[in-house]
Amino acid sequence: MIKINDISADAPADLEKSAAKDLTKEYVDRLGELQSILTAQKKYSVLVILQGMDGSGKDGATANVFKECHPNSLQVVSFKKPTEEEFAQDFLWRVHKNAPPKGMIHIFNRSQYEDVIIQRVHKWIDEDRVKKRIASINAFEELLAYDNNTIIFKFMLHISKEQQEVELNQRLNEKEKFWKHNASDWREREHWDEYMRCYEDVLNQSSIPWTVVPVDQRWYRDYVIAKAMVEKLETLDLAYPPLQK
Amino acid sequence: MIKINDISADAPADLEKSAAKDLTKEYVDRLGELQSILTAQKKYSVLVILQGMDGSGKDGATANVFKECHPNSLQVVSFKKPTEEEFAQDFLWRVHKNAPPKGMIHIFNRSQYEDVIIQRVHKWIDEDRVKKRIASINAFEELLAYDNNTIIFKFMLHISKEQQEVELNQRLNEKEKFWKHNASDWREREHWDEYMRCYEDVLNQSSIPWTVVPVDQRWYRDYVIAKAMVEKLETLDLAYPPLQK
What we know:
The first copy, chain A, has helices spanning 17-41, 58-65, 84-87, 93-96, 118-121, 127-147, 161-173, 183-189, 192-205, 218-233, and strands spanning 45-52, 74-78, 105-109, 150-158, 211-214. By secondary structure, chain A is α/β, with parallel strands linked by helices. The N and C termini of chain A lie far apart (53 Å).
């Protein structure tokens, strides 16, 4: 049973930053190599789900961890407010359309989990529907895993409420970040405890497990994500295919 | 009037490799900065068309030139043999679906031009249809340019027939490249002169101009593409937007 409030958003005190950064560089390079094999082999697909509060660093993680991946086989899917067309469908419709084909890594910047988090926080859906949706998500992810060899990574970017304030303030003060400012982020922040409760529920009810990533130090975020991905992918039977004459 | 046979596929003799590589690094870094502004400003979209014979280095150019671009705002679209669904539509249908929205860079790895090159070489379409298709492509590209502020870069990766043989042979001899081998590439090579004639026609009949990129030396390919993109983008009124309260 995961309790978010028991998990620190800080890097562990006994991990040295410069050593971690060196290791991260190695993992990031290796991830690029493993992606080349994935692309050539076309046996597996990879889905990376990045969830977290505003300012938790989803964009930064994407830029840093996948630095050595080839753009041909990497696609980011950013789930925003549903369009009218999407809203007229079940909540998984637009998600399923964006599942990764074999040989590809897809990064979901936000995901199906918004539909059981933000919607639940604001009571746009009732608790019965939340329960059914979580079951549907589990069934959907299992389908991808068994029927398309999709390796699913789920990262919950865990930021402290204090650090979020720092991050959101940067968007008010730094010219390069103005465009990321959204007044609604500050309003959502008022529902912090309710967000954490909904995240906690998701973490505990998922059949495919989550990695909770402490992100108050950005170098530790990148380290945890890159390490988790490489360690998992190294367990697979990845290999360049033989020559097809 | 462009004559392909008059253009060398080699780097110019008076350009020093190490100096060019240093400049390329600067252009690649700057392209990453310009992309950040494009994303923030959401005024322009960018379309990069990479066309060239097999082995001309479309994948390598993509990996190297866009190294500092953020994956959130970069998407590669690889046009392969049309699917049954695509084939039941006009040839621009699948292309239009993949036009870049504002704030995004889309790279077309092959493009609408295949439909007036490979199809013309094999006489799958007659000359009247070729003529109409080239006019349709011109109208389509002009539409993107005036109606969605799409900045269109068209790079014809110009490889010599000798160098192509070297590249295709690598796919038969290097384990990491086996998956790129395709017996049909060798068969297409037999139509070299006819391909060049069709490319030349496209280069001369396009309303939005092409850059012919000599690619026998890969470092020169990256230099030309990165330089052309940065120089053009620097002429635009790119600027981070003000804070929206």
